[in-house]
């Protein structure tokens, strides 16, 4: 599936659609930009970005992007996640994801012997003006598939 097709599917996916989350850009599984709109239906008690939505806007991207970039010879799963809130989100916020060749080469090298590799990925959530709102960390489990036969 093309990344642009997956972008359309994610934008229609109810957990994103009804939370105000929109995938603005998804380029060949190497770059993504996601927006979380602040609206009456997704604010928390003190009228700022709901923390669950801040985490949700980042949830699937590292796993999908690394899996697609490594190819079918690898197993990739989310292992752990955490969020650190820095400032209240009082406006729309954005998250950017970039998968670099050096990152993929490191993962391939770590998995070459067939062992699992756990790697942390970090994503900042910022306003359009660049103010840091939260930092999300996701840990991926990656392992090379065992040969069939």
TrEMBL record:
Origin superkingdom: Bacteria
Gene3D superfamilies from the UniProt entry: Hotdog Thioesterase (3.10.129.10)
Designated name of the protein: Tetrameric acyl-CoA thioesterase
Organism: Luteibacter yeojuensis
């Amino acid at each position: 599936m093309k990344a642009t097709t997956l972008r359309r599917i994610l934008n229609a996916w109810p957990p994103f659609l009804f939370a105000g989350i929109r995938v603005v850009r998804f380029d060949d599984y190497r770059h993504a930009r996601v927006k979380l709109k602040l609206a009456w239906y997704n604010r928390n008690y003190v009228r700022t970005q709901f923390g669950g939505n801040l985490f949700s806007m980042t949830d699937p991207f590292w796993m999908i992007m690394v899996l697609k970039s490594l190819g079918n010879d690898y197993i990739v799963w989310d292992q752990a996640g955490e969020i650190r809130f820095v400032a209240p989100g009082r406006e729309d916020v954005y998250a950017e994801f970039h998968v670099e060749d050096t990152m993929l080469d490191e993962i391939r090298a770590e998995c070459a012997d067939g062992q699992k590799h756990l790697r942390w990925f970090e994503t900042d959530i910022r306003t359009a003006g660049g103010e840091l709102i939260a930092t999300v960390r996701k840990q991926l489990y990656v392992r090379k598939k065992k040969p069939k036969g």
